[in-house]
Design brief:
Blueprint (H helix, E strand, L loop, with lengths): L4 H13 L6 H22 L6 H22 L4
Helix pairs in contact: 2-3
C-alpha cells in the first residue's frame, strides 16, 4: 500500500486539535475540512521548475485526495 502522507498529517493534526470528546460528526466534518484545505493548497504549490521527487510527491498527494473525495461521495468519510 502506498504511503498516505495526508492521512499521517491528519492523524497528527487531529490528536493536537480535535477535542477528545468531539462527536463523530465533528470529527468527520473537521477531517473533511482538513482534506479540503489540502486540495485547495495543491494548485498553489504546483509552480516553478519541480524536481522529479516533487512531481512524485504531488502525484501521490493528488491520488490520495482523489481517493478521499470518492470516499466522501460514497458516504464513507
Amino acid at each position: 500500500m502506498k504511503r498516505q502522507r495526508l492521512a499521517e498529517q491528519w492523524d497528527s493534526f487531529s490528536r493536537e486539535v480535535v477535542p477528545r470528546d468531539a462527536s463523530v460528526t465533528q470529527r468527520k466534518e473537521t477531517r473533511r475540512a482538513f482534506y479540503a484545505g489540502a486540495l485547495g493548497v495543491l494548485p498553489l504549490i504546483m509552480h516553478g521548475e519541480p524536481t522529479e521527487e516533487d512531481l512524485s510527491l504531488l502525484r501521490d498527494l493528488r491520488e490520495e485526495l482523489a481517493e478521499f473525495a470518492k470516499s466522501v461521495l460514497a458516504g464513507k468519510s
